[in-house]
Design brief:
This protein has ten helices and six strands. It has about 230 residues and is of the alpha/beta class. The protein has two domains: about 140 residues, Rossmann fold; about 80 residues, Putative phosphatase, domain 2 (DNA polymerase, domain 1, Orthogonal Bundle). A six-stranded parallel β-sheet has the order 3-2-1-4-5-6, sandwiched between helices. Strand 4, helix 9 and strand 5 form a beta-alpha-beta unit.
Length: about 230
């Protein structure tokens, strides 16, 4: 087999982050006694959150500032008065306890760990990801879990992958495969690191960018075929 090390992204690759986000945001809004309309409020928050994480990927905002800034922008957009710090703390608490795997994640990881060394590299907040990933049913199968806030470097910066490989004392990049759902984070990070990539694209999004993955799959279990070949 060509590959020995598989580095996975976490959210929207193995974990259903949208479900976690939906539950955490709803619980936080209700906790702050804001009359909640999911179709309206969640969409606004997701747009703000997506934009600010893209700013983080581009180096325009720190992860520390991001934690509070997204809720400042939310309060302005909703014209709602609430303590942004308390709101952020409540949201992250709810989010850290909302861990949901995609249907195929457990079967895939349980199978792969018999023949491959597995790692996770995630752009996330330490307090949230350590709990969500660490307490999941698949956590025991990973040799290494690298969280961007904890190591102070984030995808697509190649240093985060260098750190992940250093942690498991593996230097041969030709035997490593990165699997993730984000072209700008996971796939670009792999390209920046000279590591092969597999884009998980369940929604069959047309890639109109110049970012070209080594492989593309629409179903997690398709990864088995790639690895066997």
């Amino acid at each position: 087999m060509k590959y020995k090390i598989i580095i996975f992204d976490a959210d929207e690759t193995l974990f259903d982050f949208k479900k976690s986000e939906r539950n955490a945001f709803r619980n936080t809004m209700l906790e702050f006694n804001i009359e909640y309309d999911e179709g309206y409020h969640l969409k606004i928050y997701q747009d703000i959150n997506s934009a600010i994480w893209k700013e983080f990927e581009d180096g325009l905002i720190t992860q520390e500032k991001l934690k509070l800034e997204r809720f400042k922008r939310l309060s302005i957009k909703l014209n709602a008065e609430f303590d942004e710090l308390a709101f952020a703390q409540s949201y992250m608490s709810h989010l850290s306890n909302a861990s949901f795997l995609f249907d195929d994640s457990f079967a895939l990881i349980e199978s792969l760990h018999k023949n491959f060394r597995l790692s996770i590299v995630t752009n996330g907040l330490t307090a949230v990801q350590e709990n969500r990933i660490g307490k999941s049913a698949i956590a025991k199968y990973f040799d290494n879990i690298v969280i961007s806030e904890k190591v102070q470097v984030a995808k697509p910066d190649p240093r985060i992958y260098e750190l992940a490989l250093s942690n498991i004392e593996h230097s041969d990049k030709s035997s490593v495969l990165i699997v993730g759902d984000s072209l700008t984070s996971d796939i670009q990070g792999g390209i920046n690191s000279s590591i092969d990539t597999c884009w998980y694209n369940p929604n069959r999004i047309v890639n109109t960018t110049d970012i070209k993955p080594t492989y593309e799959i629409t179903d997690l279990m398709e990864l088995m075929r790639i690895l066997k070949n």
